[in-house]
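Sample intake sheet
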Amino acid sequence: MDYIQGNPTRVPTRRAWVITIGWIWLAGSVLCWFAGGMAGQAWPYHTHSGPFLVFADGPVRDLDGLAQELVQLGERLQTELAIPLCIERIGLYLFHDRELYEQFLLQSVPHLTQRDVNRQGLFFLHGKTPVIVALVGADLRRTLRHEFVHAVLNPSCPQLPLWLDEGLAMYYEVPEGHGWQERLAESLERQARQGWEPNLSRLERLTRMQQMGVQEYAEAWSWTFLLLRGGPEYRTCLQSYLADLRRNSPARPLSERWLKSGQSPEQSWWAFYGWTPTRRASRWESWRQWWIR
C-alpha cells in the first residue's frame, strides 16, 4: 500500500448496538498513545518489540520473531539499496476482526474507500510516525514485510515514484529472499498473449493508487526484479537514482538514465527475461523453475 497521511486518533465504531467495550478500549489507547500517554495498557493486547509499538485485538503468535525479521529486512534494504533508513518508532496495529480493521482504517484515513481497505494491510504516516495496520492471518508475514518496506522507505525517500515504491515492496515481501513472484509472472504472461509489452516511461507517469491495476503492479515488480537481479550495472543505476531522490532535487527518471547503457529500458527487459514478442521467455521459465524448487 502506498504513502498516505492519516490520523489514527479518530475513534472507529461498530454499527448500532454491536459496539463493544473491547473496541472502546482499542480506540482509547490509540488516542492516548499518539498524545504521548501510557494508556496503551487498555488494549486487549499490547507490547513493545524492537522499534515497534504493537497494539492488537488479541495475542499474535511469534510476534517477536516477526519483529526481528522486519528489523533484518531493514538492514538488507540499507545494504542493497545503499540508502540510510531511520527506523526509530513504528506503530503496528494488528486485527483478527476484519470489521474492526476496516472501520479503523476508514476513520483513521477518511479519504479511503471501501475498495481501498479490501486488502490485508496498509501503511500511512501519522505526522512523521509510520503506522502499519494489518489483518492477522495466513499471509501476515508477507503483509508485514510489504508494508514495512513502504513504512521505512517513504520517510527516507519521500520522492519515491509510485511504481518503484510498489515494485520494491513486492520484491522484498517474499520471505525466501529471492524476490520472485509467480502470480505476477503469470499475470504478465497472460497480458503478453494479448499484446502487452513493457513500457517503463508509462509506469513513471502514474502518480495515484487508483491508476495501479494488476497489470501495473506486475510490471512494476518485473522492472524492480531486473534492477536488483540483472547485474551490478542495474543495481548501481537504481542506487544512484535513489540517492538523487533523497537529495530532494529534480531527478531524471530511470527511463532516461537507462539510455546511457546503449539500450532502451524495454530492450534490456526483453534481453534479461529472454522474451521476444513471439517467443516464450526462456529466462522467465528458468526463474520459475528455480522458484518452484
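Comment: The chain has a mean pLDDT of 82. The beta strands are 45-49, 52-56, 90-95, 121-126, 129-135.
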